[in-house]
Amino acid sequence: MNNGSDQPVYNVVVCIPSPDADLLPGEEPLLLHAVGLVPPGERREEEIGEIGQFRPQFAVLLEVYFTDAQQIQWYRDTQGKLHRDRSAPA
User: Model-level pTM?
Assistant: First the structure.
């Protein structure tokens, strides 16, 4: 997680999908990994361990949800595109 802004981001959650299928509407991710606060300009790397049947030679596409300093919710999709106002996972 890299916060390239000059403001902190809050409530950062990484969604790690099922290793066997793309997420379909209503399908839950395999794991929600709470990162919490990421200060401005800081890069955070988190160890998630061995989850499911991921093969280490293949990249796992993740979604990242967070709230900015103005309390606006955002998410970055599996393609790296940033979107506004999608509800964060529970």
Answer: 0.74
